[in-house]
Write a structure and sequence with these properties.
One of its GO terms (molecular function) is transmembrane transporter activity. Its main location: membrane. It contains 15 helices and no strands. α10 crosses α12 (245-267) and α10 packs across α14. It has a single domain (73-345), classed as Orthogonal Bundle (ABC transporter involved in vitamin B12 uptake, BtuC), CATH 1.10.3470.10. The longest helix is centred in the N-terminal third of the chain and has 40 residues, at 2-41. Helices cover 77% and strands 0% of the residues. The radius of gyration is 21 Å and the shape is globular. The protein has 346 residues and is mainly alpha-helical.
Length: 346
C-alpha cells in the first residue's frame, strides 16, 4: 500500500507540474502576441487598429499603413533574434554549468563581431551571406578559445574560469575590433552603429538568408535538452547514465554558436538577453531543459520586442538602439546574480 501511495503521489505531482507549465506557456504566448501588437502599433508615430490590419495585408495608402509595413519585418526580426539569444543563453548555461554564461559574457558575440569587422576592413566583404558565414566562424572560434583557456589548470573548465576567460576574450576582441575601425573612416560610421546592436531597418530580404542557420541552431538546441539535463548531474554521472558527454556538449554548443553567429551578423552584438532570460524562466518552469529551452526562446523574443518598443518611446522622435536598452536591463540583473550566487561559489 505504501509503494502504491508513493507512486500515486509522484504521478499527481508530475501532473500538477505539467498543468502549471502549460498554464505558464499560455501566459507567455499571450504576452508575446501582445508584445508583437505593441511593436507594430507604437513608435515615433502611433498606429491605430484599422491601419494595422490594412498594413499587415500590404496596403500602403496612408502614412500609418506604410509605417506598419516597415514595422512588421522589424517585429519578426525581434522575435527571431530574441528567441535565438534567449535559447543560446540557456544552452550555454547548461553546457558550462555556469549561471553567468551568456553569448556576450563568454565572448561569443564579440568574436563574431570581430570576425565580421575583419572581413569588412581587410577583405572588402559586403554580402549578407558572407557576413553570416564569417560571424558563425568567429563565434565558433571564440567559443572554442574560451573553453580551451577555461580548461587549463587544476579542475578543468570550472564555471568561474570560463566566466573569467570569456570576459577577457570579449574585452580583447572588442579592443582589437576598435583598433581595426579607428584608422578606417570609410567604414567606421556604419560599423560602430552596427556594433551597438539593433533591429532598425529590418527587411524580409535580410531575414530570409538567416533562417536556415536559425532553424538549424534551434533544432540542435532543442534536441540537446535531455543531454543538458544529464550534464547538470556532472560528466561522470552523465556518462554513467548512458550519455555521450562530448557529443552532448558539442552538439548543444554548435546549436548555440549557429544562433549567436546568425543573430550577430544581422543585428550586431546584442548583450544580456541570454543572461537574463534563462534565470527568469527557471523561476517559472524549473531547471528541466525540456521546458526551459522553449520557454527561454519565447521569453527572449518578448524581452527583445519590449526593449525595442521602449527604445522607440523614450527617445522620441528619434530611437534608442535595442542593444543599449538590453544593457540597461541586463546589467542590474547581472549584479544581482553575482551577489546571489557569490562568485567564490560558482
Amino acid at each position: 500500500m505504501t509503494a502504491v501511495s508513493s507512486t500515486g503521489s509522484t504521478l499527481g505531482a508530475l501532473q500538477r507540474s505539467r498543468r502549471s507549465h502549460l498554464a505558464w506557456l499560455s501566459v507567455v504566448l499571450s504576452v508575446l502576441a501582445c508584445a508583437c501588437l505593441l511593436s507594430v502599433s507604437l513608435g515615433t508615430r502611433d498606429v491605430g487598429w484599422a491601419d494595422i490590419f490594412a498594413g499587415v495585408t500590404g496596403s500602403t495608402e496612408t502614412i500609418a499603413q506604410a509605417v506598419v509595413v516597415v514595422r512588421v519585418p522589424r517585429t519578426v526580426l525581434a522575435v527571431l533574434a530574441g528567441a535565438a539569444l534567449g535559447l543560446a543563453g540557456a544552452v550555454m548555461q547548461g553546457v558550462t554549468r555556469n549561471p553567468l554564461a551568456d553569448p556576450g559574457i563568454l565572448g561569443v558575440n564579440a568574436g563574431a563581431a570581430m570576425a565580421v569587422v575583419i572581413g569588412i576592413a581587410w577583405f572588402g566583404m559586403e554580402t549578407l551571406d558572407a557576413f553570416l558565414w564569417t560571424a558563425i566562424l568567429g563565434a565558433g572560434l571564440a567559443a572554442c578559445f574560451v573553453y580551451a583557456i577555461g580548461s587549463l589548470g587544476r579542475g578543468g573548465a570550472t564555471p568561474l574560469k570560463l566566466a573569467l576567460a570569456g570576459a577577457a576574450t570579449a574585452i580583447a576582441s572588442s579592443s582589437f575590433t576598435i583598433a581595426i575601425i579607428l584608422p578606417r573612416n570609410d567604414i567606421a560610421g556604419g560599423v560602430r552603429s552596427w556594433q551597438i546592436g539593433g533591429i532598425g531597418g529590418a527587411s524580409f530580404d535580410a531575414i530570409l538568408p538567416c533562417l536556415p542557420f536559425l532553424v538549424a541552431g534551434l533544432i540542435l538546441c532543442l534536441l540537446s535538452a535531455r543531454g543538458l539535463n544529464l550534464l547538470a548531474l556532472g560528466d561522470d554521472a552523465a556518462a554513467g547514465l548512458g550519455a555521450h558527454v562530448a557529443w552532448a556538449r558539442g552538439g548543444a554548443a554548435l546549436g548555440a554558436v549557429l544562433l549567436c553567429g546568425a543573430t550577430t551578423a544581422i543585428c550586431g552584438p546584442i548583450g544580456f538577453v541570454g543572461l537574463v532570460v534563462p534565470h527568469v524562466c527557471r523561476l517559472l518552469v524549473g531547471a528541466d531543459h525540456r521546458w526551459l529551452l522553449p520557454f527561454s526562446a519565447l521569453t527572449g523574443a518578448i524581452l527583445l520586442i519590449g526593449a525595442d518598443v521602449i527604445g522607440r518611446i523614450i527617445a522620441r522622435p528619434s530611437e534608442m538602439d535595442v542593444g543599449i536598452v538590453t544593457a540597461f536591463i541586463g546589467a542590474p540583473v547581472f549584479i544581482w546574480i553575482v551577489r546571489k550566487r557569490r562568485v567564490r561559489d560558482l
